[in-house]
Amino acid sequence: MSEDQKEKASHDGGELSIRPAAGHQDVLKRVYNTWTASAYQVLMMASWTCNIVLYSTVFDIGGPMMLIYSTIIVTVGQCLLMSSLAELCSIWPYAGGQQAFTKYLAPSRVRRFLSYVVGWAVLLGEIATASGCAMNSAQIIVGIVQLSYPDFISQPYFIWLIYLGLTLLSLLFCFSQKHLPAIAVAGGIITLGGGIAWAVSFLVMAEKQDVSFVFNTFINNSGYESTVWVGMMSFYTPVYALYGTDGILHIAEEIRDAEKSAPRAMIWSMIFSGVTSLLGALVMAFCAGNWETYLEADWPFIAWLVDTYQSIPGASAFNIIVVVLLNFLITVGINTAASRLAWGMATDRALPFSSTFSKISEAFNTPFNAILLIVGTEVVIGLVVFGSDYAFEAIVSLGGAAIQFGYLIPVLVLIFRGRETLPAARSFNLGKFGIIINICSALWSALVIVILFFPLYVPITAGNISE
């Protein structure tokens, strides 16, 4: 049977639905190895910067104490989830990622529908996340300008123009495949180096909090009365830092020896990012400074940086060189992953005009049309800011839940079908603990989805419905 016939049989519910990657024809060049793929994923999470940007959320929802404890819990939960997905990736290292896993695992009667739903959910989640990163950078830039020039009054078009510039610039960085590993390594170095520079400078210069405040003080400015629920809601910040973990799945067809390298990169990058996120949480907690005053500012984390560095130019330079630059490189990484997912879905006829979006550019060795689709959609989403900032933020918030939905479904389908349906010969095998890890992964992902659908603050207003 030819490869095309095998694919059709798999797609239509034939006996070949559970099959390993052997015989899959390469279309994209394999330019990543284990280390460059790991650097790509570490960049995509940039975990310690998320703690900084969400300064106000940290100090409203549980405080630094809960940030530390929730980071440990979230790291364990995400490692279990990534282990489940890494095992599937070792069998089907295809650009569709979760969509491909669902296609090969689901019963024939729901295979096409369920795989399309998963693919679309993840694709929209990726687009929303990239849009959120670009908009966050635009807002930070405006915040820095307002800090330096207090009389400056920002207008929606000003933010949108910066957003547009960053989004279109990311398109240029996604063109050529051969440069993508170098961008990933540069981003990984900036993530690690910037984190060390931030930690050292704050440990030396910042006003310190005592041990009791760091480990024993619970803060609740959310409006919720239940301490347990607020503790669970404190998962939001580390989840935000560690949920962008499916990028490797979508570049798997560009990784050498992907059946082995991709799962290793997924696991090691998650462990590394979890550890650095925890270290960042500890530094943030001890170096919190006059946090109650900072929370009164429009941008609490910028006020924190300015007060610690005792310099508006110093804080501005840190934000531009580290936070905004990393946000931009993350946008490039997400657009790369999303374009590969769109291309993979197009090859499965899961997109309108699939014949157009399934093409690979011979000049750049990338799915160029798919990249244009992703960036074009992000430009359109950015126009929402002219109508309502809150509507834009609601779209971005739903993106996180959509990505988690994409994590959950293939794991649930695997539990439903039974692990004995997986090929015995696979390079990453969870062994006798597999079913326990799969069940814990599914429960964890379901919990995260529930948390992401609840507002961080009550009563709900137009200003906090998307938070």
Work out the helix count: 21
Q: Would you identify the CATH H-level superfamily?
A: Amino acid/polyamine transporter I
Strand order of the largest sheet: 1-2
Question: What is the highest CATH level, the class?
Answer: Mainly Alpha
Question: Averaging pLDDT over every residue, what do you get?
Answer: 87
Tally of domains: 1
User: What's the number of extended β-strand segments?
Assistant: 2
CATH topology: Amino acid/polyamine transporter I
The main β sheet shows up as: 2 strands, antiparallel
Shape category: globular
What is the helical fraction, as a range of percent? Answer: 55-70%
Based on helices, strands and strand pairing, what is the structural class? mainly alpha
User: How much of the polypeptide forms β-strand, as a percent range?
Assistant: under 5%
Transmembrane segments: 37-55, 67-92, 113-145, 157-175, 182-206, 226-244, 265-291, 311-330, 368-388, 394-415, 435-458
Subcellular location: Membrane
Keywords: Membrane, Transmembrane, Transmembrane helix, Transport
Pfam families: AA_permease_2 (PF13520)
Descriptive labels:
467 residues, mainly alpha, Amino acid/polyamine transporter I, two-stranded antiparallel ribbon, 21 helices, disordered N terminus, transmembrane, transport
